[in-house]
Amino acid sequence: MSISSLEARELNLYYGNFHALKNVTVRIAEHAITSIIGPSGCGKSTLLRVFNRMNDLIATVRVTGQVLMHGRDIYSRQLDTASLRKRVGMVFQRPNPFPLSIFENVAYGPKIHALVEKHELAELVANSLKKTGLWEQLKDKLNDSALSLPPEQQQRLCISRLLATEPEVLLMDEPCSALDPIATAKIEELMLELKDKYTIVIVTHNMQQAARISDFTAFMLLGELLEFDSTSAIFTNPQHPKTQDYVTGRFG
Amino acid sequence: MIGIFFVALTALCCLIIVALVAVILGDIAWFGWGSLNLQFLLTAPQQGMTEGGIFPAIFGTVFLVLLMTIAVIPLGVMTAIYLHEYAPRKSMVIRWIRLAIENLAGVPAIVFGLFGLGFFIEFVGRGIDRIFLDGQLAFGQPAIIWAALTLALLTLPTVVVATEEALRAIPVSHREVAYSLGATRLQMVRRVVLPQAVGGILTGGILAVSRGAGEVAPILFTGAAYFLPYLPNKLNDQFMELGYHIYVLATQSPDVEKTKPILYSTVFVLLVLTFALNFTAIWIRSRIRRRLRAEK
């Protein structure tokens, strides 16, 4: 396995009394796509949200164990969640642009983090839109409302907005589940392009998607990480019978 | 049989309300319209208020309400932001604050007036005079600033409730995205929440203004004057106000019969002013609701 960028060690997470993640240990490879699959309610989104501490927003959450980014504990008291989330960004299930213009959406991150001088902002926005292939279509209507775009472009815009913040890791929580197959294919293509520069972790319900795009796959069931291996191993030679059942479509 | 009777009874009750409003408005419009003209709006009362216009009262009302808005909007918006964005959910403190705001909305206006007199004039005003002005009387007397602050307290619940409603209408997903991009809570509030809540805050402000513009009791002891030969131009000046002017015209005039047309027109002006403000608030609110629905 290549260098790991994120790592969870013996991670347990509770929502109140509910034990949502049980002793999860996983290493996420740098500049690769890791997918997390498993039936609904298995904890895959919860695991994803551990890496940028979005679970912190829920009052009753309690976490034990370690989560490391480049060897540093991201749950340590010294760590500032805002700066962690700047480095570990997230794309959500439903496209969720702000009700602002296309330009202002992409400029949001750079502005709050004061990444560039005012006169460089337009260039950063343009570059971010180019990375997701939106620039050619949208360059003449940057002041239009982001909400006027079709869902696929909205999701691309959300990815552009994230890239403008200059993160290292992209967490994607079923980013294609609100999109049609053609739009899904385009977003998948985009993810393959992005993995050269970013570490990508994707939660998906769609096993074909995991098989198509990811380098590593984690299979989760009832809060446990049952199996973690290269994607080809998980799909062609799973070690755990439950993994076998799931990837062959016997339950889910 | 009883069913029909009940329907008729409920319908009659509605009819009474509608008729009542129609009679009041019709009467005022009918008699008020006659002596209403530009001259009336732009001149001061003359001949013991039996002639002339109501300009000082309009000016005083606008000045008063402006000061009130400057005081109540920041206070109300900050309170709502704290309650909705920062305060821990379901804590004891929050329940007490909410209870206080609800009760504030239920306090009779005259009590606010007395409070304003006791607190702002006697305590704060006299305090300023004693400490900064060597006891010279400047702020320790009824003045437009104290009346405006008293009205601000009265209308505070309106602003808090309207702002909170606006904050609640902002989808969770927008807050989540802001956090996921590394925004601090302050950045989230400032750049995501507040811009979207502007409409709601505006609505609350306008409702507060229309409520404040019509209240007489709170300003009775705190700054409204029976008649002033000059317009207020300092914060510690007294002022004339439309609502109080109506009270004066109706009860304190030397010749009630002669002031009647002026009284009608003054009431008409006050009603038009508050209605216009209310309709603006309703219009803005419905526009916001439409936009929110379109996004969902």
Q: Helix count of chain A?
A: 10
CATH domain class of the domain at 4-95 and 169-247 in chain A = Alpha Beta
State the fourth-level CATH superfamily of chain B: MetI-like
Task: Determine the N-to-C terminus distance of chain B.
Answer: 47 Å
Helicity level of chain B, as a percent range?
A: over 70%
Rg for CA atoms of chain A = 18 Å
Q: Layout of SSEs?
A:
The complex is a heterodimer of chains A (252) and B (296).
Chain A (H helix, E strand, L loop, with lengths): L3 E12 L2 E12 L3 E5 L6 H7 L10 E9 L2 E2 L7 H7 E4 L10 H11 L5 H14 L3 H4 L12 H14 L4 E5 L7 H14 L4 E5 L3 H7 L2 E6 L2 E7 H6 L4 H7 L5
Parallel strand pairs in A: 3-8, 3-9, 6-7, 7-8
Antiparallel strand pairs in A: 1-2, 1-4, 4-5, 9-10
Chain B lengths: L1 H33 L3 H5 L2 E2 L4 E2 L2 H32 L5 H15 L2 H24 L11 H25 L3 H9 L4 H30 L2 H4 L21 H10 L4 H40 L1
Antiparallel strand pairs in B: 1-2
What report would you give on this structure?
The complex is a heterodimer of chains A (252) and B (296). With 252 residues, chain A is α/β, with parallel strands linked by helices. Chain A has a domain at 4-95 and 169-247: Rossmann fold, CATH 3.40.50. In chain A, 36% of the residues lie in helices and 27% in strands. Chain A contains 10 helices and 10 strands. Chain A has helices spanning 44-50, 81-87, 102-112, 118-131, 135-138, 151-164, 181-194, 207-213, 231-236, 241-247, and strands at 4-15, 18-29, 33-37, 61-69, 72-73, 88-91, 169-173, 199-203, 216-221, 224-230. Chain A has a 6-stranded mixed β-sheet with strand order 6-7-8-3-9-10, with helices on both faces. In chain A, strands 2-1-4-5 form a 4-stranded antiparallel β-sheet, covered by helices on one side. Chain A is globular and about 55 Å long. The two termini of chain A are 29 Å apart. In chain A, 44% of the residues are buried. Chain B is mostly helical and 296 residues long. Chain B has one domain: MetI-like (MetI-like fold). Chain B is built from 11 helices and 2 strands, in the order ααββααααααααα. In chain B, strands 1-2 form a two-stranded antiparallel sheet. In chain B, strand 1 and strand 2 form a beta hairpin. In chain B, helix 5 (109-132) packs across helix 6 and helix 8 runs antiparallel to helix 11. The longest helix of chain B is centred in the last third of the chain and has 40 residues, at 256-295. The mean pLDDT of chain B is 89.
